[in-house]
Amino acid sequence: MAICPQCGAEYRKEILRCEDCDRDLVEELTPENAIYDTSEARFVALKTFATSAEAEMVQEILTKNQVRSLLQGEASTDIFPSTAVSVVLLVDERDLAKASELVEAYFETELEEPLDGKEDQET
Ligand SMILES: [Zn+2]
């Protein structure tokens, strides 16, 4: 049995990725690898972004680190930046400390390496 750590869907053993989430499946869900919401998680606001693109980028990092997160708020990348709506990134209260660290580390890296050196490695 293979299980998606994000949505909890079960797949046949020979399936390696969840189609919906585009995530590698795990053999067994444990508290360490489970990403999907198994409990009454309380989501708290971690950070507000001006664009959904940036918010999604950070969310991806959190997801890779097994931190559950949600994006809240409407934003359109088609609209002029001046009218962009803010997007709030919410994380599970229990993951707040870890998420803050990850986000901080992310933005520190951004400052050190401005534009090039975009990491685009998928495992
Ligand atoms: Zn899934």
Plain-language structure description:
By secondary structure, the protein is α+β, with helices and mostly antiparallel strands. The protein folds into two domains: 36 residues, no CATH class; 77 residues, Alpha-Beta Plaits (2-Layer Sandwich), CATH 3.30.70. The strands form three sheets. Strands 5-7-6 form a three-stranded antiparallel sheet, with helices on one face. Strand 3 and strand 4 form a beta hairpin. The longest helix has 17 residues. The radius of gyration is 16 Å and the shape is elongated. The site of zinc ion (ZN) has 8 residues, from loops.
Primary descriptors:
123 residues, alpha+beta, 2 domains, three-stranded antiparallel beta sheet, 2 helices, 7 strands, 24% helix
List the SSEs and their pairings.
Elements: E1 2-3, E2 10-11, E3 17-18, E4 23-24, E5 43-49, H1 52-64, E6 69-72, E7 87-92, H2 96-112
Antiparallel strand pairs: 1-2, 3-4, 5-7, 6-7
The protein binds zinc ion (ZN).
Zinc ion binds at residues 4, 6-7, 9, 18, 20-21, 23.
What's a concise summary of this model?
By secondary structure, the chain is an alpha+beta fold. The chain is 24% helix and 20% strand. The longest helix has 17 residues.
